[in-house]
Amino acid sequence: MPYYYFDSTALIKRYSMERGTRIVNKLMVKRGKVAIVPTWTVTDVYSILCARAQEGQITRDDCYSVLYKFEIESKQGLYQFIAPKMETYLATKELVLEYPSLRSPQVMHLALALELKPLRLTVVSADTQLLAASKTAGLHIINPAED
Fold first, then answer.
1. Which terminus of the chain has fewer CB atoms gathered within 10 Å of its CB, N or C?
2. Positions in the chain short of pLDDT 50
3. How high is the pLDDT of residue 52?
4. pLDDT at position 147, please?
């Protein structure tokens, strides 16, 4: 069973036609896959889509339609949401020391992904810094933007 850990840079590609959308959609339809999403990514997706509407990249109606699609797919169980625990936050100290160039959200993603490492998951992200650290830490990676 394939396990995929999505950050917002990858997940947004499910709801926006851009470079990497094809790869993300291909992963989403794999039989038996589990798409793992950190809980704070919900807010990231809302923020990204609303910012795109504010900037005129998409219409307000398109923004609402995409938000609705995301919420429906979430309720239908397409995603398995995971929240950090206190141990996750404590693990970030070692990660910050080991990867000082990572920003806080990147460190949190890495910490959560490492907690799930026994699942032999794949980190799916367009964030090249996060992917490099994930690979160094022994995680499998996919950059959908390299499509």
1. N
2. none
3. 96
4. 74
User: What is the DSSP secondary-structure string of 65-89?
Assistant: HHHHHHHHHHHTTSEEEE---HHHH
| C-alpha distance across the termini of the chain, in Å | 23
Residues 6+ positions from 19 with CB-CB distance below 8 Å: 13, 144, 145, 147
CA distances from 7 to 79, 86, 89 (A): 12, 20, 17
Q: Which residues make Cβ contacts (< 8 Å) with residue 108, sequence separation at least 6?
A: 38, 40, 84, 88, 92
**Predicted pLDDT of residue 12:** 97
H helix runs in 12-103, sequence order: 21-28, 40-54, 60-75, 86-98
